[in-house]
Amino acid sequence: MISRSWFICVHVSRFFFSCFCIDHEITAV
After folding, report:
1. Would you say which domain of life the source belongs to (predicted)?
2. Exposure b/e, 9-29, CB count within 10 A at least 16 = b
3. So what's the pLDDT on residue 5?
4. Domain map of the chain by residue range?
């Protein structure tokens, strides 16, 4: 089981930006 976390920042407007974290879980057999 491999846990990978991705941090992505998206720029919304010119003075405002939104940041959110995405967790992807990959199960390897």
Report:
1. Eukaryota
2. eeeeeeeeeeeeeeeeeeeee
3. 64
4. 1-29
Separation of alpha carbons 18 and 20, rounded Å = 7
DSSP string, 1-29: -EEEEEEEEEEETTTEEEEEEEEEEE---
Q: Rounded to the nearest 5°, which phi and psi values hold at 23?
A: -105, 120
Q: CA 13 to CA 26: how far, in whole Å?
A: 34
How far apart are alpha carbons 4 and 25 in whole angstroms?
6
